[in-house]
Amino acid sequence: MSEQPEQPTDDRQYVKFTFYGVDPGWRRLPQGQRAEGREQLLNLLQGSGEAMITSTYSTLGTRRDTEFFVWQIADDLWPIQEFASRLVNSEIGPYLTVTESFLSLTRRSMYRNPKHPGASAARERVTPLGRQFLFVYPFVKTRAWYLLPKEERQRMMNEHIEIGHKYHSVKINTTYSYGIDDQEFVLAFEADDPKVFLDLVMELRETRASSYTERDTPMYTCRLMEPAELLTHVGL
After folding, report:
1. How far apart are CA 126 and CA 50, in angstroms?
2. What is the value of pTM for the model shown?
3. Which CATH class is domain 110-222?
4. What CATH superfamily classification does 14-104+229-233 receive?
């Protein structure tokens, strides 16, 4: 008898990762016009917390193609789309460019390590820890990975998972994009020290499962900031 697919639960969340660039022309506008646009954006960012979890991050100085990042987690897709609509129709909207965008959903892990039986169920809900940094990237496995027997994939993932558990100060949030965006997963790691995360990724590169990675870029290093602090930081 074949195994029946797992049924979705009501606890799953939509997760949106949006990276923005700022048109340099915005900073040359009259101060009064900029102040009005900044106030609209600040109210939008702060108000979105009523409909979903919204966290804001600076990417200024870490990459050439983005200046800030908004991480949103909602029980329905509509609040995410409504936020985007209000943003593009705001005073500052024409001066913002979405430089990268990932959409995903939470679900139980495909791979369940018997040493950590509760870990997969916990992934149906994302609760940010408020750590200083978030490291984000899309992830795609090779087609050859899915042709392997599930038992073999599980053995390789057990090694992968055990390495992750050695780095207790790094929390991984794995979300799924099959059929709803270009990548298969979006990985978001919360940590207070980029050096620890670098060491974790270096060690993961040596696992067998890593050889079945097709794509895991672009990678973003994001620093957590409250909305008012963020807007000042990036010159909005």
Report:
1. 16
2. 0.91
3. alpha beta
4. Apc35880; domain 1 (3.30.70.1030)
